[in-house]
Every structure is written in structure tokens, then in C-alpha cells.
Amino acid sequence: MFACSPVLIVAFNRPAFTVKVINALRSARPSQLFFAVDGPRPHCPADVESCALTRALVSQIDWPCDLHTLFHEGNKGCKYAPPDAITWFFRHVPAGIILEDDCVPTHDFLHFSSDLLSRYSADDRIGMITGDNHFHYQTDSHVSYHFSRYSSIWGWATWSRAWNLYDVEMKRYSEHLDTIRASLGHSVRFRNYWWRHVTAVQKGMNTWDIQWAVALLANRKLIIRPKCNLVSNIGFACGSTHTCFEFDAHHYMSTASLTFPLAHPDVIALDDPADRKLEARIVSYWRRGLTWIGSKSSLARALLMASTRRLSVVWP
Fold it and tell me: Radius of gyration (Cα) for the chain, nearest Å?
């Protein structure tokens, strides 16, 4: 049995999702658990009950632990509530695991991230650990993980030293944005696609994670990515803030397992071929096109979901 690192759950108004995250933590029994829930939106009366039900889930935490709660009275939204919760978390701990309410971790992810938070605690080259490798892209199949440029926050872990780089308004990095964009990725298509998210944030998009990616890129931090997917994102449904239909959703939801003890890479260096494959997948015309079609038609969405596994074999 491993010693699980401190865990932060960031939740809002989805108790049915949040309870699955809590249930997934039960096997690892983290000794420090932080539970942050945003407040109801003033224009959504239903939030009052759903937020209250989410907060009441503290009663489901039935193992001995040092439990901390942060319950906002008002609504801070997707731009401010998660980073406020993470900052609060790192006022108490030097390193830990962050799970949003639709990111259900496997036991292996909790073990994996806890081991690597300890191993790389003093290595400033590493910015974060993600639990995501949706397509299992990795050059060396004999090691448990590789190093990437690209962050993913669907189940992740980091250190307070890295989180100190975060700026929700990106003012610290305003002079570096052109340089970051010019050095991003291996194709103009990927660069332009990715940068549209930064432009959307600058125009007021209600999100926080693009700013974290910018901080990591600006400071040239490496991201540890497992050889297989270790966290299931169950949030791809209408009603989610930023995710509805996505053709690759079954990849985001499915998980695999690792072997312990971990097999570490011999050197700390980018797995550039894996990053190239990920970039190509992100901007592929067929994936984006099928996602768009599915988002516009409920019938097309049903047909695509029924055939998605077969199609993913044709277009890996």
C-alpha cells in the first residue's frame, strides 16, 4: 500500500459526478483531503439545491483523514473558483493531486502521481503530472511515462513551487505570448488552433486552465504523462460548461492500468514523436469534423457514438 498524496476535489453543482470521485478515492484513503465547492449562480435557482447536495457529500468521506472544506457563498465561476481552490490547497500542502468533479481517477493514478510527486519534488524542470494519455502515445513502451510539452488537467498533480507561476489574467506573461506562440508545436495549423484558446481567454472566456498551460509553456516546464490513460473524464454531456459532444469522448473516459514499481525513463527529455502524434490528433480534420456534426444533430451524435470504436480503428 502506498501513501497517497493530499487530494483536492474541485466541485460545483453535480453531486452525481462528485460522489464517483469520492468513491474512487476510498481505496487509497488519502490522509489529507480538501473539498472545494463553488456557490450557486444567481440566475439559476436549481443551483441552490444541487450545490447543497454536493456539499453534503462530505458525509461520504468515511475514512480517517484531515478534512478541509471551502464552500463559497456566491458563485465565482469557471475562471476563478478552481484556481482559488488550488491556491487555497497549496497554502496548506507543498504538493498534491487535483481532481475536478467529472474526473474519476483510477487507483493507479493516485499511486503514480504520489510516487512521482515525491521523486521530482526538487526538480524544477518538471511543472506537473497529468493522468491523461488518451491515445497511449509514447515512443518507449518499456517505461511507465514520458515527458511532454502539453498539460492536461483532467486529473493532475503538481507542487506549490510550480503553481506559484500561475496568473489567471496572464499579465505576467503578456510580453512573452508572441514568443510562446512562435515556438508552439510542429505545424502552423496546430499553432493557430491552440492559440485560438488563448485569444478567447483574452476576450473574456470563462475558464482557468489555458492560463495554467501558458504559465507552464512560458517557463518551459516539462509535463509527466503516463503511458496509458489513468483518469476517466465522465463530463462529456450536454449541461457541461465546456464539453458536450466530442468524437474522442470514449478515449477520454476509458482507462488502463500500470505496473508497479514504476519503470522510469533513463533521461529527462521530451518525447517529441509522442507530442507530434498528439498534435496531429488534436487538429485532424476528420475528428474535428465529426465532433462538429455530432454537436449539431442528436441523431448524428447517436450514430457516431455507436460507431466510434470502429472508426477509431480506421483512423488511429
Answer: 19
250-253: long-range contacts (C-beta < 8 A, 24 or more apart)?
250/305, 250/308, 250/309, 250/312, 251/134, 251/135, 251/312, 252/132, 252/134, 252/154
Residues pairing with 34 in the sheet: 8, 68
For residue range 213-232, list pLDDT tens digits in order: 999 999 999 999 999 999 99
Partner residues linked to 175 by β-bridges: none
Grid cell listed for 76:
465565482
Total count of residues recorded for the chain: 316
Round to the nearest angstrom and report the end-to-end CA distance of the chain: 36
Which residue has cell 466510434?
Answer: 308
Beta strand 66-71 pairing with 95-100: unpaired
Report the SS3 class of residue 185. coil
Distance CA 185, CA 182 (A): 9
* 8-state DSSP, 125: T
Cα 88 to Cα 63, 157, 163: the distances in Å are 23, 15, 11
Q: Domains plus CATH for the chain?
A: 7-283 (3.90.550.10)
Q: Does the model's pTM come out above 0.85?
A: yes
Which tens digit of pLDDT belongs to each residue from 41-98?
A: 999 999 999 999 999 999 999 999 999 999 999 999 999 999 999 999 999 999 999 9
Rounded to whole angstroms, the Cα distance separating 254 from 232 reads 6
